[in-house]
What does this fold into?
Amino acid sequence: MLLKHRGSGASLRVPEQESSLKHMTTRRRPRRSPERASPLQDIVTVALDDMKAVNIKVLDVRGLTDIADTIIVASGNSDRHVRSIAESVIVKAKAAGFPPLGKEGVRDGEWVLVDLHDIVVHVMLPRVREFYGLEQLWDVGDAAPVAANAGPKAAVRRRRPT
It folds into this structure.
């Protein structure tokens, strides 16, 4: 693009901005079909079973978020059990060639999160799991249907002042 300054014969060359936004484009990655579990998901569920994790729930969150394809929630009987379950998942994932991107909460042991890129694993004590209710937050299969003729405000329930 060529710009001319008023009053003088000087002109400036301004670079086009079309290529400056190319680095901000989000690439879509191919998604697995919902029928097939990934090899990593199989490794994680076997590791959880081997360590006697309780109440294992696998949530498919494709279409709900881009941070992961699957969220796996499991419980342990004590803080030591929660830590050992999470460490077992990390060791088995590393051995299979899937190093974790991060882990949080290992020191406290009430709730340990393991980020395995496409799969996020939450291992929690039962009371912590009940308090935060991640299954209800991410599982849309249990959502109550909204009436077809009702507007968008029908799904929102307001509290009455007491």
